[in-house]
Amino acid sequence: MFTPGRGTHYLFFKNRWVQVNRERQNQTIKKDGMTRTALEVVSLTTFGGNPTFWKSFLENAAKDALSQLETGLCVYIPHGNSWQRLGAPRNKRPIDSVILDIGVKERLLDDISNFFTSQQWYIDRGIPYRRGYLLHGPPGTGKSSFISALAALYGHNICMLSLSDRLIDDAMLNHLMHNAPLNSFLVIEDVDSAFGGRHDGVIQHNPVYDGLSRVTMSGLLNAVDGVASAEGGRVLFMTTNHVERLDAALIRPGRVDVSQHFGNCTPIMFEQMFKRFFANVPDTLCSKFRDKMLSIDIECSPATIQGHLLNFKKQPELAIENVGKLKE
C-alpha cells in the first residue's frame, strides 16, 4: 500500500478529479517530556458542492479499509497521542495452528465467546463491560501466537503497548487505551519488564528498572480498571514470562479476569505439532516422534519444536532421527 507524500496530488473518482493536499503544520504536539512532533493536515478538494459525492467517497474508502481487515490482520502501535498501523495487514493465522496443552485453548475460546455475547448481562448488573487476560509461561510457548490467531478468528485488530516506551506516561497510556481503533485487542507484552516485583507484600526496588518506564504502577492500575478506565467491550491481554514478578495488585480479580499458564510441550503436543507439519503421515510416525522426544528428556517449547521441524519440513523421518540434536 502506498501513501501520498507531502504536497499536492490528484485522483479520479466517479468522473471527478479530487485534489489531495498533504502538508505539515507549524503547530506541534508534545509526544513526551522532550520531543515534539509536527501536526499534518490532509485536505481533499473537488469542483461542485453536492454532499452525496463526499458521502460516497468516504463510504468507498471505509469499504476498502474494511476489506483489508477481512483479508489480513492489522497491528497498531502508538504514534504520538494516536495509533498508527504497523506496515501492511498480515496474513491471518488459523487458530488450529496454535498447539497448546489439552483444555487451554478451549478454556480461553469459551470465555471470550461468552464475553462477546454477554454485553447486556454486564449492563443490567452495572458491571463494567471489559475483560482482562493474563497469559504467562516460558518464552516460546505460544502466548503471542494465540493472541494473533484469536484476533484473526474474530476479525479484530491488535494494538500493541510497551510499558518501557519512553514516549508513554500515565496520562498517555490512559488516553491510548480509551482511543484504540474499533474491534481491537489491547496487548501489553512482557508486562513485568517495566517494574520491579513484590515479595511478601512489599514492593521490591531494583535499580535495573530505573529509567525504563515513565508509566507508574498506579498509572497502569488506573488505566486497567480505574474510574476513568475504558469499557465498551475492551479486551486487554497482558503477557509475561515471569508471573512471580508481577505486583499482586495488578493481577487481582477485576483487573485480570482469566489467568492462564502456557507451558512447554507435553507428549500430546509433540504428536499434534508433528501431525500439523506432516499432515499425511500415519499416526504411528507421530507416536514415534513423541517417544523420541520423551527419550531425550528435555524441556522444549513449541517454538523450539517448530524450529526443529522447519529444518526437515519435507522429511518427517529425518525430523525423528535428528531429535537428539535438540540436546546439543
Automatic annotation (TrEMBL):
<dbReference type="InterPro" id="IPR003960">
    <property type="entry name" value="ATPase_AAA_CS"/>
</dbReference>
<keyword id="KW-1133">Transmembrane helix</keyword>
<dbReference type="GO" id="GO:0005524">
    <property type="term" value="F:ATP binding"/>
</dbReference>
<feature type="domain" description="BCS1 N-terminal">
    <location>
        <begin position="1"/>
        <end position="98"/>
    </location>
</feature>
<dbReference type="Pfam" id="PF00004">
    <property type="entry name" value="AAA"/>
</dbReference>
<dbReference type="GO" id="GO:0016887">
    <property type="term" value="F:ATP hydrolysis activity"/>
</dbReference>
<dbReference type="Pfam" id="PF08740">
    <property type="entry name" value="BCS1_N"/>
</dbReference>
<keyword id="KW-0472">Membrane</keyword>
<comment type="similarity">
    <text>Belongs to the AAA ATPase family. BCS1 subfamily.</text>
</comment>
<dbReference type="InterPro" id="IPR050747">
    <property type="entry name" value="Mitochondrial_chaperone_BCS1"/>
</dbReference>
<keyword id="KW-0378">Hydrolase</keyword>
<dbReference type="Pfam" id="PF25426">
    <property type="entry name" value="AAA_lid_BCS1"/>
</dbReference>
<dbReference type="GO" id="GO:0005743">
    <property type="term" value="C:mitochondrial inner membrane"/>
</dbReference>
<dbReference type="InterPro" id="IPR003593">
    <property type="entry name" value="AAA+_ATPase"/>
</dbReference>
<dbReference type="InterPro" id="IPR003959">
    <property type="entry name" value="ATPase_AAA_core"/>
</dbReference>
<dbReference type="InterPro" id="IPR027417">
    <property type="entry name" value="P-loop_NTPase"/>
</dbReference>
<protein>
    <recommendedName>
        <fullName>Mitochondrial chaperone BCS1</fullName>
    </recommendedName>
</protein>
<keyword id="KW-0067">ATP-binding</keyword>
<feature type="domain" description="AAA+ ATPase">
    <location>
        <begin position="129"/>
        <end position="266"/>
    </location>
</feature>
<keyword id="KW-0812">Transmembrane</keyword>
<dbReference type="InterPro" id="IPR057495">
    <property type="entry name" value="AAA_lid_BCS1"/>
</dbReference>
<keyword id="KW-0999">Mitochondrion inner membrane</keyword>
<dbReference type="InterPro" id="IPR014851">
    <property type="entry name" value="BCS1_N"/>
</dbReference>
<keyword id="KW-0547">Nucleotide-binding</keyword>
<keyword id="KW-0496">Mitochondrion</keyword>
